[in-house]
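Researcher: We're teaching a course module on how sequence relates to structure. For the next exercise, students receive a sequence and then see the predicted structure as tokens, so they can try to spot secondary structure elements on their own. Here is the exercise chain.
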Amino acid sequence: VNVFTFSELTTELLPCYKDMLAQATEANKRELKSALDGVKSDNIANFTGAFATAFEILHKYNRTGQGCQCNQAIMLVTDGPSNSFQDVFKQYNWPHMPVRVFTYLVGKD
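Model: And here is the predicted structure for the students to work with:
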């Protein structure tokens, strides 16, 4: 598990999880949830950069055999929709779709 914030840049919510996934233990989930309280939205969201970062980390774990090799998913929570996903999905997730993607729109459109 990992959580990223993104606008112009995509960064880990917690720097100690840089370029990695952590086990989804109760302690790790609690720490990530607590850190979410300080997140503020600003600027324009770079969805392509955010998805590319997420796919790269998941692909790294697949290529190297790290982790438990379980089902992989990306969850996007945003306050504004975008139609710019197609290119990054073609590059990383088509045609076999090894990663499931769940999107959630919160707030006003």
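Model: If you want an answer key for the exercise: Residues 12 and 31 are 13 Å apart (CA to CA). The longest helix spans residues 47-64.
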